[in-house]
Write a sequence for this structure.
């Protein structure tokens, strides 16, 4: 998926590509910590150590840069989730996935939330192209969760009539809401609780 | 406190205090979903995350307590009804309606405080995903999962008719 501008349609030299990648990575870090709205192009110029004209050489403006950040953050998260969920076929495996997310978020006392969820909150009402890009990434992430639940169904852990797509969407809602609550109270506890409760419900379906 | 927080808490105090049984919980859910799916409602505005630290933490904590208290009432009602059924329904008691009646034991597997955390997470996360996708299904799926131990599938079916209406409002 590509939502980034290539403003002048030029092919990048290896050095140009490295500069572009550095700008996007720095912008992604700033936007994760401060939010999109509070991150200016000047902030990105200063933090990257490039000139303003270099930045405009690669990006026509902030929207284009935000879209490039979405691609980068989306790739990172989908890759991480593919690695974490790709072969999970047990409830214990799903709990290990939960443990890793909670542990990682606990490192910063939940201060910054989910990198993709934070982007979602900020682009939903501002940039239609960006909104659709983030929505596609969430659909892909939920698809990975649904695939785990389907494997649980295949092995008889979940009953055939369980609606796995709906459960995966509900679990994603619990996870994202958990990140938001953790961010609010600067404590990972409500995130751990909400995901645990969601997983407990999914597990309870197997005994009915 | 942020003006949206105060409006939401006022409404939630009134609405959640009226929740004493499963039917009441279903009605509360329908109303909160309608509020969250309305783009500029106080609920939608209050739940969008901003850097308003302490005020937001207080807002979330107070709402969570209101939800937990409502869940505890619903749980006691479910327990009382189960005991009535077990007693053949001949000696119907209304222990939970009497102010000084002893609390029946909790429904196994339901912890009101932890359930309230999951419900609040579902409102926040499901609401954000529904806004992102312009589709109420994410909020519905999150609340279905959060309320599943309390709300039977029969009640979910009752809501299907209501849901058709909320779909169109998301396109606005």
């Amino acid at each position: 998926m590509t939502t980034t501008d290539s403003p002048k349609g030029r092919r990048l030299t290896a050095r140009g590509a490295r500069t572009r990648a550095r700008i996007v990575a720095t912008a992604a870090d700033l936007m994760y910590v401060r939010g999109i709205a509070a991150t200016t192009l000047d902030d990105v110029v200063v933090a990257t150590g490039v000139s303003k004209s270099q930045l405009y050489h690669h990006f026509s403006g902030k929207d284009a840069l935000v879209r490039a950040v979405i691609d980068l953050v989306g790739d990172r998260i989908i890759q991480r989730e593919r690695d974490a969920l790709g072969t999970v076929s047990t409830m214990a495996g799903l709990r290990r996935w939960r443990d890793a997310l909670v542990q990682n978020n606990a490192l910063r006392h939940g201060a910054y939330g989910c990198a993709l969820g934070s982007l979602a909150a900020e682009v939903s009402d501002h940039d239609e192209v960006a909104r659709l890009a983030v929505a596609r990434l969430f659909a892909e992430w939920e698809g990975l969760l649904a695939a785990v639940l389907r494997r649980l169904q295949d092995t008889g852990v979940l009953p055939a009539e369980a609606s796995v797509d709906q459960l995966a969407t509900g679990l994603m809602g619990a996870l994202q809401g958990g990140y938001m609550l953790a961010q609010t109270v600067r404590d990972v506890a409500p995130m751990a609780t909400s995901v645990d409760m969601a997983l407990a419900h999914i597990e309870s379906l197997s005994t009915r | 406190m942020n003006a949206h927080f105060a409006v939401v808490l006022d409404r939630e105090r009134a609405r959640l205090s009226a929740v004493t049984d499963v039917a009441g919980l279903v009605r509360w859910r329908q109303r909160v979903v309608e509020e969250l799916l309305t783009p500029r409602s106080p609920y939608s505005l209050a739940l969008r995350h901003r850097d308003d630290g302490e005020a937001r933490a207080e807002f979330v904590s107070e709402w969570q307590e209101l939800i937990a208290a409502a869940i505890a009432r619903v749980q006691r009602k479910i327990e009382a009804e189960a005991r009535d059924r077990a007693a053949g329904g001949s000696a119907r008691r209304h222990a939970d309606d009497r102010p000084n009646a002893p609390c029946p034991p909790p429904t196994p597997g339901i912890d009101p405080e932890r359930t309230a955390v999951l419900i609040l997470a579902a409102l926040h996360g499901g609401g954000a995903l529904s806004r992102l996708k312009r589709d109420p299904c994410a909020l519905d799926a999150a609340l279905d999962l959060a309320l599943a131990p309390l709300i039977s599938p029969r009640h979910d079916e009752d809501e299907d008719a209501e849901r058709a209406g909320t779909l169109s409002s998301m396109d606005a």
The radius of gyration of chain A is 19 Å. Confidence is low (pLDDT under 50) at residues 1-5 of chain A.
